[in-house]
Amino acid sequence: MILVTGGTGLIGSHLLFHLVSNGKAVRSNYRTKKSIEKVHMVFEYYTESPNKLLEQIEWVKADLTEPGVLECLFIGVEQVFHCAALISFDPKDFKLLELTNVEGTANVVNLCLKHGIKKLCYVSSIAAIGPSLGKKEVTEENEWNESKASVYGITKYQAELEVWRGSQEGLSIVIVNPGVVIGPGFWKSGSGSFFTYASKGKKYFIPGGTGFVSIGDVIGAMTQLMESNIQTERFILVNENLTYEELFKKIAPKLNVDPPSNKVSKVMIECFWRWDWVRSHVFGKRRKLSKVMAKSLFNREIYISDKIKSTLEFDFEDLDNAISFCCEKFTDRS
């Protein structure tokens, strides 16, 4: 039996499809029945019989922050893919991020140890590696700098420490640090928001850039690592390093719209994050852009995936194919 936490998210849902399609016995947690509908939608992108595969998953209602309820997930399990996480860059959410990402991961690690789980794969993020320092390329050996990290990145880094702690106590682990994951199904969040934004024919793009990777490559790397003898290692998963301008130039033509052509100026960003702070503290609105995130928009980060390539002889797919597939599914979503 394989356990997938966060099976109703982008990575988790695609991982579930891969596992059940290959005849694996799978269990996953969920919080609401509505969230399982999103998994059904993702399955529809890849098969004409989504219900048949969905019925093969053993669903258990459980929250990562409740160890007593969570324990039933681990009975009879040999491998765990820990994909669950809260994603927010609003400093006001720091305590909630700590609860879900750090304490939730600690709970998973503790239960893996208690139940003798053979191997744990933790899905972290390049946000837990941090930005390049001195314009250097970022590798797994990058020096952590909390002062330049988002609240999300800080909690993912702290969650990794919990996973490393588990390895010191005898748990076999691997960690993956994906870049921005390109995959269909969640059009209002993550990389999906790029497709939604581009489809509206927007005129502005933000400066800077980061690392991108297809959902297929993330799932492929995770499953290969779990099937291997590799342990106590972390791997950056980035196929291409793109500016946001370059990304929109790839997406927009496939949606039959013009790509954004005007770069948001530094003055506009500086003004916006300050106004965003005011509206948050005075009017109680949710933050859209923190100071740390605003500063990061001026940088183009370059992430290197040589380690996964050499360790597994892993070949990344053409990112353009993944973008084309997402554009096709975005267009057909209605």
Automatic annotation (TrEMBL):
Statement: the UniProt record of this protein carries the keyword Oxidoreductase: yes
Domain NAD-dependent epimerase/dehydratase: 2-228
SUPFAM superfamilies: NAD(P)-binding Rossmann-fold domains
Entry keyword annotation includes Oxidoreductase: yes
UniProt KW keywords: Oxidoreductase
Top-rank lineage group of the source organism: Bacteria
Residues annotated as transmembrane: none
InterPro entries linked to this entry: Epimerase_deHydtase, NAD(P)-bd_dom_sf, NAD(P)_dehydrat-like
Recorded family membership: Belongs to the NAD(P)-dependent epimerase/dehydratase family. Dihydroflavonol-4-reductase subfamily.
The name this protein goes by in its record: NAD-dependent epimerase/dehydratase family protein
